[in-house]
Design goal:
The strands form 4 sheets. The protein has a 5-stranded parallel β-sheet with strand order 8-7-9-12-13, with helices on both faces. The chain folds into 3 domains: 75 residues, no CATH class; 81 residues, Arc Repressor Mutant, subunit A (Orthogonal Bundle); 154 residues, Flavodoxin domain (Rossmann fold). By secondary structure, it is an alpha/beta fold. A hairpin with a 5-residue loop joins strand 1 and strand 2. It is 39% helix and 15% strand. The longest helix is centred in the N-terminal third of the chain and has 17 residues.
């Protein structure tokens, strides 16, 4: 009788992993899973929640998204979901986090993932079994779902796939990929989600300066000529943008001359979530003070945020090809845009 230990499995997605989860000084437990995208920490309370089993594939997709966005060793549930009620709420909210849901959405997401693998090697043969992260990339439940999607892509003449291990992208597939990317890849617009207030005028000017320096047209909601339902217009502006800048600054709310609280702007979170669900890059900014940092939602706080101070909102943008000893906010933002998004072609 064999006494070999069984292959350990990932507690989130259920796939086999090389090493069993281990205790961590930083988290309750830590795990490394190729399908989920890398190393992460987790709490056993997550696994015992009644909502977990139905959305475990979305938790895996969330981990993958976090790691892709640059979060090193994310923790699930995020910091802030500290009891069963909050964990359950976070798990339920994953259903509305913009992951592919329909068959059509998952087909497009899988096709885009293949294009990301191929890059400029047009005829490259793809071996899906070598890319276990494809499952979480498209929020699929398991490998069988990916195989079924491959069959559908094959039937639509997007890929050459006969049910074996290998596939290639066909001309129709590349045409579809181009259609999906055309609206954003060549856009020279950027949507700015922020709290419009005299208090933020200097911030707004600095952001506009950075965007125009990088070759992008700022799309600011209160500068557009709106007719009808304003959210339809906001949605249209986000769709036509290449990326968005979301400022999560909370500002003093004044009642009868007294500051009653520092309120957050729910609309900014909503607009950032819309863009995130459309797979558009979202650049996070926030004022650098205790109130603003403290009131960043725990989901948002895990992403890189460019913090700004009022004293660094003025000044021109110098030559960014040379080191700048003390860059102002517009210079920091412009450097980040050029480094993560690239140069646009918009000129006034």
């Amino acid at each position: 009788m064999s006494t070999a230990n069984p292959q350990p499995t990932c507690p989130i997605c259920g796939d086999s992993i090389a090493k069993a989860p281990t205790p961590s000084e930083r988290w309750d437990l830590q795990c490394e899973c190729d399908r989920c995208g890398g190393r992460f920490g987790y709490s056993p309370d997550l696994l015992g929640n009644a909502s977990f089993e139905g959305v475990r594939h979305l938790v895996s997709a969330w981990i993958r998204r976090q790691i892709e966005s640059g979060v090193q060793r994310p923790i699930v549930p995020p910091a802030g979901a500290t009891d069963f009620t909050l964990i359950g709420r976070w798990l339920e909210n994953l259903k509305y986090a913009g992951f592919p849901e329909t068959v059509s959405q998952k087909q497009d997401a899988l096709l885009q993932a293949y294009a990301d693998i191929v890059k400029d090697e047009i005829g490259k043969v793809i071996k899906p079994h070598l890319y276990p992260h494809l499952i979480s990339e498209i929020a699929a439940r398991n490998r069988d779902e990916v195989k079924a999607l491959n069959q559908l892509l094959h039937q639509r003449n997007y890929i050459d796939f006969s049910g074996g291990e290998n596939l290639t992208l066909k001309a129709n597939g590349w045409n579809r990929i181009e259609e999906m990317g055309k609206a954003t890849s060549f856009s020279d617009s950027a949507f700015v989600a922020m709290w419009f207030n005299p208090y933020t005028e200097e911030y707004r000017r600095a952001v506009t300066k950075a965007l125009q320096h990088c070759g992008y047209k700022p799309l600011v909601v209160d500068e557009a000529d709106f007719n009808g339902f304003i959210m339809d217009q906001v949605l249209a502006l986000i769709r036509q943008s290449r990326f968005i800048i979301a400022d999560f600054t909370c500002l003093p709310e004044v009642q009868e001359g007294q500051i009653v609280k520092h309120g957050v702007r729910g609309g900014v979170y909503w607009e950032a979530g819309l863009a995130f669900g459309m797979n558009k890059p979202v650049i996070h900014t926030c004022k650098d003070n205790e109130d603003c940092r403290r009131r960043l939602h725990f989901d948002v706080a895990q992403y890189r945020t460019l913090f700004w101070r009022p004293d660094e909102l003025t000044g021109d943008i110098d030559d960014l090809t040379k080191p700048i000893a003390n860059p102002n906010f517009a210079e920091k933002l412009a450097q980040h845009i050029l480094g993560t998004i690239g140069k646009g072609n918009y000129t006034e």
